[in-house]
Amino acid sequence: MAHKRNRRKIFKKGLPPESLVYTGHREDTPANVVSVSYTEAAFEEIQGYVAPRLEERKGVLWTDVRGLTDTKLIEKVGMDHGIHALALEDVLDTQQRAKLEEFDNGLFFIVHNLKIDCVALELHSEQIALFAGKNFLVSFQEDPDDTFAVVRKRVGDGIGRLRRKGSDYLAYAIIDLVVDSYYSVLDDLEAQELELENDLHQNGAAHTTKARMFALKRTANEFRHRLLPLREAVTRLHRTESDLIDDSNRLYFRDLVDHVAQILDGIDNQREMLANLEALYQAEAANRLNNVMRLLTVISTIFIPLTFIVGIYGMNFDYMPELRWHYGYFIVLGVMFCLMIGMLIYFRRKRWI
């Protein structure tokens, strides 16, 4: 997957700015558009792209582009809505960090929809770009699935404030939906860490436990890496002086900042927990090594006097005491056996074994 992203990235080398090249790895997914227009009293949803007449529009027009493989379609949507070519370039460059950019006719926001694969312990990222202008919003999703179905249903059913608010509140609702999904990722990470902790206590420092621990640590670090720029972006969105943000909606953007900060605190707590589990793993591995060394030391200690006796009677002298005894061989074996048993009993009482 990473190889494909790098290969697509090379295609942009040497091209001038504002070149529209899709750099993601979802080349086989077709692009489609859903157009939603609504006022406080009416709602309409059309499967397909509807060219806007922004100067005549009342209410809000929401153009949802799903899939980024059709660069011609994205270029047309951008031209019809007056989206700057640099913003469209960032839409197609799916390795962008979360950010907010202000243009004369709108606000451009990038956020990543994150999901965790609990089997492979990998974090899957889908880039979502929003361009909010006066009475319109264009959303660009990297995947063709219906990520914003909940928001669209709220608009259609007239639930909440969406139908009474402008495009800035619609942008808030979409970003809030993505941020709320991070809590599920956080819960999945915590569940995996608890499972890893139980496995570590039951099975000790196994190799599979070590591999899973480092995979989980890598996923947590990547999750935090994705959210750090998002905190800056939502803070700028809350504090922007753009006329497109209604003052009555700033309270909601401030709440969004609090949610991101809360999730970052949760990630830091889990990273600390992973560090503790790693220390526990190292202690278990060291304890296992100590047990092995102790067993080898006991065996070596037992054989030291036995080797001494064998070494003495292995010397080639003719005149040695007890050398001509008829039962000397059996007596020496018996002495060696009793010495070994005595040392084992002594070590056992000392709790060395």
SSE diagram, text form:
Layout: H1 2-10, E1 32-38, E2 43-47, E3 60-66, H2 71-81, H3 85-92, E4 99-103, E5 106-117, E6 122-133, E7 136-141, H4 149-157, H5 167-203, H6 207-239, H7 250-313, H8 328-349
Parallel strand pairs: 3-7
Antiparallel strand pairs: 1-2, 1-3, 4-5, 5-6, 6-7
Helix pairs in contact: 5-6, 5-7, 6-7, 7-8
Main attributes?
353 residues, rod-shaped, disordered N terminus, 2 domains, alpha+beta, Beta Polymerase, domain 2, seven-stranded mixed beta sheet, 15% strand
Helix tally? 8
Percent range for β-strand residues:
15-25%
CATH-defined superfamily of the largest domain: CorA soluble domain-like
Mean pLDDT equals 87
Named CATH topology of the largest domain: Beta Polymerase, domain 2
CATH C-level of the largest domain: Alpha Beta
Helix content: 40-55%
Round the Cα radius of gyration to an integer and report it: 34 Å
Strand order, largest beta sheet: 2-1-3-7-6-5-4
